[in-house]
Amino acid sequence: MKKRKTILDIGLMKQQQDKISVLTAYDYPFAQLMDSVGIDIILVGDSVGSVFSGYDNTLPVTVEEMLYHTRAVVRGSQQALIVTDMPFMSYQIDLPDARKNAGRLIKEGGAQAVKLEGGEHMAATIRAIVDIDIPVMGHIGLTPQSIHRMGGFKVQGREEEQARRILADAKAVEDAGAFAVVLEGIPRNLAKAVTAALSIPTIGIGAGADCDGQVLVIHDILGLCDKYSPKFVKRYADISATISSGIEQYIKEVKAGDFPTTDHSFK
Questions:
Q1: Which of 43, 49, 200, 242 is the most buried (most CB within 10 A)?
Q2: What's the pTM?
Q3: Interatomic CA distance for residues 246 and 70, integer angstroms
Q4: Which residues are marked as active site?
Q5: Domain boundaries 7-236, corresponding CATH code
Q6: Are the beta carbons of 117 and 183 closer than 8 angstroms?
Q7: Which residues contact 211 (CB under 8 A, 6 or more apart)?
Q8: How do residues 70-92 score in pLDDT, each as one tens digit?
């Protein structure tokens, strides 16, 4: 039986300077594909709201939706560490609510860890969840659940005071017991400084090459989502055109009566 990665394995990767690969997945087929080629971490991101469900942002996503997608991803994977996002308002209200929702994502969803956004102001929440033996990945810098406060998806930490605050957030997340932290939308030099200052792994997205690992959205790297085109996304394949071509050919054959043939029919 294949061995699933643990948070201890991920921590060791930083110590050994072995870069950590992370991708989002929201369903069984993509989880299978990622797992089969050796992805280290699969993040069941609340980006499912924008990428999969067509919302304008991540804010409408519910715990029930995250549970549904987490279960699908867990069934499709055997080796990757599965981390699930805690959606907006599932951990911000109070500590008992945060612990309960984190517990549901582990117990009912099957994830091995949860991720939540916020630095110093979320340290007590991270600590409360870690204290009931649920591993937590932090997320600082550009935090999508805070887009209204930030005025949109804007790079964070370019100003000196903001950079100091992000570094303080990173240390607070580590001190609270998080096993790793996502650094999103911050300058490369700041991400490098944060990575050097922490003993836990940093996972970058739009934070440069000096982080301990990188995460991207699977639909972005495969050309399946044209809704947004962030500077930090690299398209590794364009399967959108292939899919469209296949669908067009299917429509053409159905309308012409060329499908199904006898090869696709029963006697």
A1: 43
A2: 0.95
A3: 29
A4: 184
A5: 3.20.20.60
A6: no
A7: 183, 191, 195, 202, 203, 204
A8: 999 999 999 999 999 999 999 99
